[in-house]
Design a protein that fits this description.
about 160 residues
């Protein structure tokens, strides 16, 4: 069944204590997803491989040789690379505010569209439904029906 895997009810007192660790691994939790753990393990393995590769590459470049001429030659060879990296970093930092501005504009546009087109339409439909209930069930004895319809529309 679909609903057996979902978290429908929970005890808030349990989640405020160390029971939150148990709740993470509940069958309806995101952390119980095998695909999520697989992706996390893949990312950790790739990160570890990248770190080890960079470490061993650095050891290979510098090496255990204490010869000053070899070290000086390596430093001289790397100086143009450092200057190019510094220029690239400066250009990227100049471009960063523009890109962040575009991202922020897009995020705000999406939020506003969701606010007006989704939530605004739902709120309008709920108002219309409450108005129709007030017209069709005007008596005081039918107040429970009006309240229940309003409550259900708020819950949906």
């Amino acid at each position: 069944k679909y609903f057996d895997r979902q978290v429908l009810n929970y005890d808030s007192r349990r989640l405020n204590s160390l029971g939150v660790v148990d709740a993470i691994f509940h069958s309806g939790s995101t952390f119980s997803s095998v695909a999520l753990w697989r992706d996390v393990i893949i990312v950790v393995i790739i990160s570890a491989f990248s770190c080890l590769s960079a470490y061993f590459y650095n050891q290979w470049m510098v090496g255990d040789d204490d010869d000053l001429c070899t070290l000086q030659a390596q430093v001289t060879y790397l100086e143009p690379v450092d200057e190019a990296a510094a220029r690239l970093a400066k250009h990227m930092l100049d471009l960063l505010p523009f890109l962040l501005g575009l991202y922020l504009t897009t995020a705000l546009d999406r939020w506003w569209a969701m606010r007006t087109q989704c939530l605004g339409e739902l709120w309008a439909a709920m108002d219309d439904l409450a108005l129709l209930c007030a017209v069709y069930f005007p008596r005081a004895g039918e107040k429970k029906i009006r309240e229940r319809v309003l409550r259900w529309s708020l819950l949906s």
